[in-house]
Design goal:
Layout: H1 2-21, H2 23-57, E1 65-70, H3 77-80, E2 82-83, H4 86-93, E3 99-103, E4 105-112, E5 115-124, E6 135-138, H5 143-147, E7 152-155, H6 157-164, E8 174-177, E9 180-188, E10 205-210, E11 221-222, E12 224-228, H7 235-250, E13 256-260, H8 261-304, H9 306-314, H10 319-360, H11 369-396, H12 400-405
Parallel strand pairs: 5-10, 7-9
Antiparallel strand pairs: 1-12, 1-13, 2-11, 3-12, 4-5, 6-9, 7-10, 8-9
């Protein structure tokens, strides 16, 4: 065992000496592999980070919730309109649903310091609901707020800044909506749902009010329904039951569609996975090019060192020793090139993520270092094994007498 380790150490030392002695040639040989590994690593890292960042945008929303809306294209749009009272009727028809709430999201004008501001008013029920954004201060709505039709509000971080300023506590203060004052009972923490998916609403100030105030705002029809399932695995089933209940209420011609965060997450993962895979395959072609270059230079090295191979065989080196010697040289060439490519790929990925991807989503989720390093080493070792084996085997089959006479 110790003899094998000694022999292996000797071969590694000889391989490093050969690579160092032919530094420029080794670097040019590794260039294709460096570009290939660097490209693959950068693409995998950017794809992984972008996917996680986009999914992080959706993280404040419950995976057990579904949103049901009338389809835009249908025979009778007026027939499919959802009424405020439909929420209670659907809840009675779908016992597995934890809750069914009407959805409203509409712009309103309010006046702050003699200036008109556009406020986006959305509705919510008691407790956490579908939006799980944590509160910076205050509380969520409770059952008493809903049953008593209290004019209370929860402000987004931007609404708190725009409407009340940043000094002191916002709790107990009032904002004026639709001619009525609403007491602030909570303020959300700064949101993460901006940037890529929130680009169209970042300029709006969001104020959340109890859904039971919808009739008092003068609305009979709502945008849709929020259906909360017992768990994420039953979202689709419960949503389909709610759609069936709506069809019974409004007629079979009424058409509805369901959207849930779980499906959106899966769709995003599939899209980014396919894009990353396709681009990765294209970048991986340079790995093949780099591998061919390494095999070519190893064949040249075998030719140049034919006499050396003959001497080693004459003094007792076995075919396995010759194979191992040249195989280790090819493997080290690939691993060194892979490590250089890893460093370049990571630097390139960091640049792309923090310069370009940052403009799409400000909340960047970093890629996994362990996975990236493992991929780079596997790619490099795989190229070394694939393209270094043939030259090593060819060297081992040289006839020692012919090799000694080679000039």
């Amino acid at each position: 065992m110790s003899e094998s380790i000694t022999k292996l150490t000797e071969f590694v030392s000889q391989a490093l000496e050969v690579l160092w002695r032919n530094g420029m040639r080794s670097l040019l040989t590794m260039l294709g592999l460096i570009i290939g590994v660097g490209s693959v690593i950068a693409i995998l890292a950017v794809g992984d980070s972008t996917t996680k960042s986009v999914l992080n945008i959706l993280s404040p929303y419950s995976l057990a919730s579904a949103f049901i809306f009338p389809k835009q294209q249908q025979p009778d749009p007026l027939l499919a309109q959802i009424r405020y009272d439909d929420a209670d009727r659907v809840k009675r028809a779908v016992p597995d649903a934890k809750t069914v709430l009407p959805i409203m999201s509409l712009p309103m004008e309010t006046r702050v310091n003699h200036q008109d501001k556009t406020v986006r008013v959305v509705t919510a029920g008691a407790g956490q609901g579908t939006d799980t954004t944590p509160l910076a201060e205050g509380r969520l709505f409770n059952d008493q707020d809903l049953s008593a039709h209290r004019r209370v509000a929860i402000l987004s971080a931007q609404a708190r800044h725009e409407l009340l300023g940043d000094d002191g506590s916002a709790l107990g203060r009032f904002v004026r909506l639709n001619g009525s004052d609403f007491e602030v009972v909570g303020v959300q923490a700064p949101p993460i749902n901006q940037g890529l998916l929130g680009a169209g609403t970042t300029g709006l100030i969001t104020v959340t009010i109890p859904y039971t105030l919808i009739p008092q705002l003068g609305y009979t029809y709502v945008f849709g329904l929020t259906v909360v399932a017992p768990d994420g695995s039953s979202v689709t089933r419960v949503a389909n039951e709610a759609i069936a209940a709506l069809k019974k209420i409004h007629g079979a011609r009424a058409q509805y569609e369901e959207r849930d965060i779980k499906q959106l997450n899966e769709g995003i993962e599939r899209v980014f996975g396919i894009l990353t895979g396709v681009i990765g395959v294209v970048a991986g072609i340079s790995l093949v090019v780099g591998g061919v270059g390494i095999m070519n230079i190893m064949l040249v090295s075998v030719t140049e060192r034919t006499r050396e191979i003959g001497i080693r065989k004459a003094i007792g080196a076995s075919r396995q020793d010759i194979v191992l010697q040249f195989f280790i040289e090819a493997l080290l060439l690939c691993l060194v090139g892979g490590l250089i490519g890893l460093i370049i790929g990571v630097l390139l990925a960091e640049f792309v993520i923090h310069v370009w991807i940052k403009q799409l989503t400000p909340n960047i989720v970093s890629f996994g270092w362990g996975q990236i390093i493992a991929v780079s080493l596997l790619f490099s070792a795989g190229v070394g094994i694939l393209f270094g084996t043939y030259p090593a085997i060819r060297a081992s089959y040289l006839n020692p007498i012919d090799a000694l006479r080679y000039e």
